[in-house]
């Protein structure tokens, strides 16, 4: 099942996007945003602006009260979103609304299992597919729990994107890569989001090791913060993922009560544009 | 539920008790979780490992803990019955007499000896009441390993004596401000630490929760409680007890008491959850009574959660019970009907806390005071030859300041 296409007939949005990047000879930019942060309408404005700002793949975080693999920025973003009323069904609606205006940019939902478990895994997969979602990253579902959601997701025509980590040694890696599709998300550090950063050299080596085990594109994230770092990563991997530092920009546009101020959306999209420009200047491989 | 010929066979090789349990952790942790499991399986086969645990349990912890006939409480409950010739015979399993003052040390001993076998050089832990944190800090001092304990700021405020105790023992106590600053948040931050330090760090989880193999491993270490009760009751009364009662935070003291008796159908097992201000108020910590199955902290179990699957903060006067989940084996025992789960409120626990102090000269921790509060409800109407064992799993020294505050006494 590994490497299966997203929709069963023809290449998926994710596959088309990575093929296009390859043809352009550059690495891509993936941006993470927490759905509904800081409020649904402001979030939708940001989401709508991401493709125009140069984002190649969008990762939408499904807010969870207890995001164990995330650092303070993404935790806080999740809690702001929940406080402003975001839910899992709200997240699916947001994806569907985005799809009415953009049918090409891949959307990956990223989060934790409990809200999906609570929603009902089968119903979730059906609704996510209908909303135009392309793939899933569920942090707390390792290969050992594949029958929970991974296999049903692949059967439903969604990509299942696994996190490979520095602890995924040559013994572990085949397990991690099995049932992975769309792309592989390499977590470049041991740790939570938004904390440490890996060196370009370490990432280059890790990507080479992964490439020996898989033909799937490799995206690299966790600790990628600046346009310079994004370019460095995009030069050696198929895409760079930026999350916490985008959220930091968003936070800079909040007032003391966590409400959006007028410049917020432009501030976030301006930063994203600088990431995209930097990535585009970096020549791949 | 299919008929089982044993309730003691779980978990399966993937860590499942029925459909509860499992290994729901980030990939970074998976290789280490598998290594812990492998090391534990190997240790179990090594007689030297169990011998080391037994030796420290005896000379360092002070095991076996006594099985004590609580005569005055027995008389008190009998006098509460509708007619004069009833009232269960109540025994306390005195795990509050252990070194460090609770059952938590039983588990810490097993885990630190395992960490050493694995060559780990740094220990982390979460704590609610601070009893587990103190026990971890204690074994870290004894075995010369650096120790970092995550503790919510709310708990730091209400369990101040234990915070200082941990520091005296050489541990670093990291205040956790996320969420409500209680046990669940401490566990989140301990997991975040672990993800960042997998190469050298062993996480000593304090209850029968977390990813496989922790629920089974912690249960095994705590089963010394039930095994001793079995022998001691045989010596005292020449038979099995009729009812076992224990409080439930994550469920480790209860599982340790229950597990050796799971296949004795005549023995009634009762776990007491914290009902906080009352189940109907929504401000409680009773995951089985007020929750539904979900996935948190590495396993599938009953959780307090919203319709959207967001975790709800628990509430209990007892920091050690203030957790929105419960060990997966309890969820399974609950659904299979082998054990019963009930609850006691803050107010009932406070009353039991004072009753035990005055009648038995034992100040219990607020956690087992919940178990006693339920004993008080059922003991009066049970026959006089009914043998009841309550796990007195912790002493109340840590709670005297917060109880004084609730009772409006200035110290
Ligand atoms: C004395 C005591 N009893 C009970 C508990 C609850 O834990 P468990 O349910 O795992 O026994 C604690 C936790 O801190 C405790 O300190």
Write the topology of this structure.
The complex is a heterodimer of chains A (285) and B (411).
Chain A (H helix, E strand, L loop, with lengths): L12 H12 L3 E7 L5 H10 L7 E5 L10 H12 L4 H12 L7 E5 L1 H7 L1 H11 L3 E4 L11 H6 L3 E2 L2 E2 L8 H5 L6 E4 L12 H12 L6 E4 L5 H10 L2 E4 L1 H9 L11 H18 L4
Parallel strand pairs in A: 1-2, 1-9, 2-3, 3-4, 4-5, 6-7, 7-8, 8-9
Chain B lengths: L15 E2 L2 E5 L5 H15 L2 H15 L5 E3 L1 H10 L8 E5 L10 H14 L4 E6 L3 H13 L3 E6 H6 L1 H9 L3 E5 L6 H14 L4 E3 L10 H9 L1 H14 L5 E5 L4 H7 L9 E9 L10 H4 L1 E5 L1 E6 L24 H9 L3 E6 H15 L5 H13 L8 E5 L8 H7 L5
Parallel strand pairs in B: 4-14, 5-6, 5-8, 6-7, 9-10, 9-14, 10-13
Antiparallel strand pairs in B: 1-2, 2-12, 3-4, 11-12
Bound molecules: pyridoxal-5'-phosphate.
Q: Name the strands of the widest sheet of chain A in spatial order.
A: 5-4-3-2-1-9-8-7-6
CATH class wording of the largest domain in chain B: Alpha Beta
Oligomerization state:
heterodimer
Work out the helicity level of chain B: 40-55%
What order do the helices and strands of chain B follow? EEHHEHEHEHEHHEHEHHEHEHEEHEHHEH
Main sheet: strands, sense, barrel of chain A: 9 strands, parallel
What low-confidence regions of chain A span 5 or more consecutive residues with pLDDT below 50?
Answer: 1-6
Indicate the structural class of chain B: alpha/beta
CATH architecture of chain A: Alpha-Beta Barrel
> Number of helical runs of chain A?
12
Q: CATH H-level name of chain A... which superfamily?
A: Aldolase class I
Shape by Cα distribution of chain B: globular
Give me the Rg of chain B, rounded.
20 Å
- Compute the average pLDDT of chain B: 96
